[in-house]
Structures are given as structure tokens and as C-alpha cells.
Specification:
Shape: elongated
Distance between the termini: 199 Å
Structural class: alpha+beta
CATH class of one domain: Mainly Beta
Largest sheet: 3 strands, antiparallel
CATH superfamily of one domain: Hormone Receptor, Insulin-like Growth Factor Receptor 1, Chain A, domain 2
Order of helices and strands: EEEEEEEEEEEEEEEEEHHH
CATH architecture of one domain: Ribbon
Number of helices: 3
Number of strands: 17
CATH topology of one domain: Hormone Receptor, Insulin-like Growth Factor Receptor 1, Chain A domain 2
Length: 243
């Protein structure tokens, strides 16, 4: 063994030197060179750091640098995250997205353009004027729809969600509050508070006379009839004996 190579290495190194650090790694670890000032030191890691991708060989596993515009990558030609100012599209980092796509500043990716979508119109509302449905001949009716898909930055904007048009109806009178049929019936059932005391007394007098009359009729039905007394003058009349 070379005198500069040590066998008692630490930190996952299989072989190492005092000057260059790790020269080889233990199985399944990745070898990567880290720059410290003007010096490069070999280290052994379980996974490659950001900006590197790993390749496995029979004798050694190495970490290689991604492209300059790529922050993380799967292979040298397939980026998974771009550096600031670039947009990811199909594994590549682009300064400008292709035609038909738009840049998403939140994910830093090129995405498809999404246009606005609206639902079908609702049926027309009843004809109204100033919030009422009676007392007029010409009014307005409206219909509405909902937005089911909002557009992306370059997508077509959403259309109007409501429409209004003039309408003509057969004019009918509005029922005033307190004078409807129901209110009139309830008013009839309530006693008249303005009724005079004299009228109430007459009503009580008629009821009392009717009660007395009915009581006399009942008494006459229950008492026995008196026999009519004979006429004494007729009994004392002379008898005609001329015959």
C-alpha cells in the first residue's frame, strides 16, 4: 500500500489519505469531490447532494454535477428542478416557455394554458320592477350562470355571469297590506270596540224577554187546564110548553 494511503479511515471511506480525504467508499455509498478553497477533498455519502446526480459502477459509485441551469437532476440530461430564472419543461430548463404553454411562477414550470369555462344559463326569472311582481306592465327579467373553471394567466377571460332583458306582463293590482281577503275575514271575527253601550243593553234586553217568554210557555204546558164553569142563566131559562 502507498505510504500516503491509510486503511483506518472514518466517515464511510474504504481508503483515504491525509491530503485528499476519501479515495474510495464502502459499498452502496457515493464518492464525491468537495472543493474547499483551492483544494478538493473526497467524501463518501449515502446520497448525492443538491446539484449532483448519482451513477453506479461495478467498482465505484460516483456523484456527477448537473447542468449549470439545473438545481436538481435525475441524470445529466434530465433536470427535476431548475435554478432561479429558468422554467422546467420535459426535463429541461428554459428561459422562455414554448408556444401554447405559459410560465408558472409558483412552480417554475411550463404548464398548459387554461381557458375559462362557464355553466349553462339558468331559466329566466319572473318579470319584476323595483323588486315587485305586480303594479306594472313593463319590467325586467334576469338569468345567471356560474364559473366552473377559472382561467390561467394567459387563458381566455370569463364571460358575464348574468343577463337582463325587458319583459311585458299583464298588469295586475298589488294587494295593500292589511286590506287583503284574509285580513278582512279576521277583522269581521273581531268584536267591534266602537259599539255603543246602549246597543249592548238592547241586545241584553231582547235576550231576557225571549227567555221569560220561553219560561211562560213551558209553565203553561205543565199546569192542568181549568174546567169552564156552567152558565147559571142558561140553566134558569123558562121551558117552552106551548107544544
Amino acid at each position: 500500500v502507498h505510504p500516503n494511503v491509510s486503511q483506518g479511515c472514518q466517515g464511510g471511506c474504504a481508503t483515504c489519505s491525509d491530503y485528499n480525504g476519501c479515495l474510495s467508499c464502502k459499498p452502496r455509498l457515493f464518492f464525491v469531490l468537495e472543493r474547499i478553497g483551492m483544494k478538493q477533498i473526497g467524501v463518501c455519502l449515502s446520497s448525492c447532494p443538491s446539484g449532483y446526480y448519482g451513477t453506479r459502477y461495478p467498482d465505484i459509485n460516483k456523484c456527477a454535477k448537473c447542468k449549470a441551469d439545473c438545481d436538481t437532476c435525475f441524470t445529466k440530461n434530465f433536470c427535476t428542478k431548475c435554478k432561479s430564472g429558468f422554467y422546467l419543461y420535459s426535463g429541461k430548463c428554459l428561459e422562455k416557455c414554448p408556444d401554447g404553454l405559459e410560465a408558472n411562477n409558483h412552480t417554475m414550470e411550463c404548464t398548459s394554458i387554461v381557458h375559462c369555462e362557464a355553466s349553462e344559463w339558468s331559466p329566466w326569472s319572473p318579470c319584476t320592477k323595483k323588486g315587485k311582481t305586480c303594479g306594472f306592465k313593463r319590467g325586467n327579467e334576469v338569468r345567471v350562470r356560474e364559473i366552473v373553471q377559472h382561467p390561467s394567466a394567459k387563458g381566455n377571460p370569463c364571460p358575464a355571469t348574468s343577463e337582463s332583458r325587458k319583459c311585458i306582463v299583464q298588469r295586475k293590482r298589488c294587494q295593500k297590506e292589511g286590506k287583503g281577503k284574509k285580513n278582512r275575514e279576521e277583522k269581521r271575527k273581531k268584536p267591534n270596540k266602537d259599539e255603543s253601550k246602549e246597543t249592548r243593553q238592547e241586545s241584553k234586553g231582547r235576550a231576557a224577554r225571549r227567555q221569560n217568554r220561553e219560561q211562560r210557555e213551558n209553565n203553561s204546558k205543565t199546569q192542568p187546564k181549568k174546567r169552564k164553569a156552567p152558565n147559571k142563566e142558561q140553566d134558569l131559562a123558562p121551558v117552552d110548553t106551548a107544544h
